[in-house]
Design a protein that fits this description.
This protein is mostly beta strands. The protein is built from five helices and 21 strands.
Length: 452
Amino acid sequence: MNFWKNLILGAVICGLIQLLPAGSAFAVGSGGFENATFSASSLAQSGATVAQADEAAAISYNPAGLAYLPGIKGQSSAAFLSVFTHREAPNNDSQWSSGTLNLVPTAHLSMNPGSLLGDRVSLGIGSDSPFGLSNKWNSNQSHVHYAGWRNYLKMYTIKPVASIKLHEKLSVGGGPIYYRIFDFGGIQAYPNAAVFGPGTPDGQVRLNLAGNTWGWHFGALAKPHEKHQFGFYFRSPATVRTRGQIKVERSTASGNFETGGKAKIDLPLNFTFGYAFKPTSKWTVETDLGYTRWAAHKRLFIDADPVSPADDAILSAIGKADKDYSDSWGLHFGGNYKVNTKLTLRAGSVFYWAAVPKDHYIPAVPDSNSLGASLGGSYMFTKNFGLELAYFSRFWFRRQIDNTISEALGTTVDGRYSSIMQSFMLTFKYGFDDLSVPKPKGDEKGLRKPAA
């Protein structure tokens, strides 16, 4: 197959996987609502891949690695994430969140035109969902009645990148990031009693906002020795200004109504350092240290368009919340073993420090210190096509919460919380190394023979 046919094939496969409906769940990131799910091989090593960056999905965690990938490389992935949270209330009542199963598709495509650009430049484009939120509780449970029993943040990115090989042992890469949040919001009780007094029946409010913005990212990859590699990745902060609808049912003042709303969502910067050691041609082990500046997420103010004095007072009370997140660190360990030219096995582990403080903790983002472990493998059916699988499980340690959120309305979020997440990811890989254009028929020097 020639260069352009291979390129079109890769683009079509990437496009088809991105047509899947996207759902997001906080799960694999540094805390808060980050979701660092990019490929099965990365997930199988618990994210310890910044210093290897040897796949097209490196577009999302270190685009510098693309400079060393020959020809055309593509990956289309689907991750399935399930999250459960347990709360032990102060009265020893035990409560569980409802189960959620979320599909997160990703796609990445890289192209190295070889001698056309001096064997030093590669281009790529990818799409993923680096932040997300999805959980659901029983609406009758008091700790979520006013804090939100249904919460969601669904988004995707588009990442065009370029990677340049400065030296055979050093490359850099990066590009812009387009963020699109297409559904952010939740469902909670509408506290009519806040204005009309105790005993007034509650209504319900649903929030659906959307918005987009731009950021950028950069990576570097050094290979000073055949056994040692070093990687670095940086993602810029970004602020998404969202706008949409607030739908209220059973308002005592206005009945059912809709109004506009807007909110700013701050997405944090991240940088990660990685070191990979290759003791033999079959083994690779890596450790990464990542930092995420969650302190940028200071507050979430949802400003509603005016409706009536009574409704405006309620919407203002439930739409203003301090967050004051803390910066978070992640320590990743992972490795892989090449059994043969077709089969590679992977495993990893990660520890994350919590970003959400106790004073502003709500069940929508039940964050705490957490430990994750993973395993997986890949099998190349042919030189050009292969399949990767990964399983990742993360445990949030039990955390005692005692704050004043929703207490003014007669409920409390206090209790002991713990969460568990399980993720299964499937990646379809394809690649074509030989992109040479056939020479015209002719003599040994490549000249066309004259007609007889």
